[in-house]
């Protein structure tokens, strides 16, 4: 059953300017393995983290650096959640989080669907 959906859109140039003005944002927003990626990839990951928070219904218990975006061998993006963020997701009953990322024309976007086991009990 879908329990949350989140989407976010980031202007890559604006994001890059923010990072240049405040370099410590990299450490506050990204896991160590993400910090050396190019600006367009960081912008997409930032969008993914924002979209996840929206899908969760808020940021209670969420730490930015506990949210890492990795990839399967096929290239499919995945969340690797740790620490308080992993606990917050589990406490909400979420068993699966789907992620789609894209960047083009100076924009990065992310779409997240959070699922929980069970059904909505609906019927006709």
Automatic annotation (TrEMBL):
Tell me which UniProt keywords the record has, alphabetically. Cytoplasm, Fatty acid biosynthesis, Fatty acid metabolism, Lipid biosynthesis, Lipid metabolism, Magnesium, Metal-binding, Transferase
**4'-phosphopantetheinyl transferase domain span:** 4-88
Q: What is its main location?
A: cytoplasm
Cofactor dependence is on: Mg(2+)
Q: Which GO terms describe its molecular function?
A: holo-[acyl-carrier-protein] synthase activity; magnesium ion binding
Pfam families, per the entry:
ACPS
Q: Does the keyword Transmembrane apply?
A: no
- Please give the GO cellular component terms listed in this UniProt entry: cytoplasm
Recorded catalytic activity of this chain's protein: apo-[ACP] + CoA = holo-[ACP] + adenosine 3',5'-bisphosphate + H(+)
The catalytic activity of this protein is classed by the Enzyme Commission as: 2.7.8.7
A GO BP entry is: fatty acid biosynthetic process
Query: Where does it reside?
Result: Cytoplasm
Q: Which domain of life is it from?
A: Bacteria
Looking up InterPro entries in the UniProt record yields: 4-PPantetheinyl_Trfase_dom, 4-PPantetheinyl_Trfase_dom_sf, ACPS, Ppantetheine-prot_Trfase_dom
Residues making up the signal peptide according to the UniProt record: none
Where along the chain is Mg(2+) bound? 8, 50
Say which family it is in: Belongs to the P-Pant transferase superfamily. AcpS family.
Q: What does this protein do?
A: Transfers the 4'-phosphopantetheine moiety from coenzyme A to a Ser of acyl-carrier-protein.
Cite the NCBIfam families for this sequence.
acpS, pantethn_trn, PRK00070.3-2
- Protein name in the entry: Holo-[acyl-carrier-protein] synthase
User: What is the gene called?
Assistant: acpS
């Amino acid at each position: 059953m879908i329990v949350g959906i989140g989407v976010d859109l980031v202007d890559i140039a604006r994001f890059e300017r923010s990072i240049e003005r405040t370099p410590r944002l990299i450490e506050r927003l990204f896991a160590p393995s993400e910090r050396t990626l190019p600006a367009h990839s960081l912008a997409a990951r930032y969008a993914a983290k924002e979209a996840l928070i929206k899908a969760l219904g808020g940021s209670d218990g969420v730490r930015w650096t506990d949210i890492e975006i990795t990839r399967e061998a096929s290239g499919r993006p995945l969340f690797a959640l740790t620490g308080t963020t992993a606990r917050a997701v589990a406490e909400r009953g979420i068993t699966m989080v789907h992620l789609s990322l894209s960047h083009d024309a100076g924009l990065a976007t992310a779409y997240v669907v959070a699922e929980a086991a069970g059904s909505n009990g609906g019927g006709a």
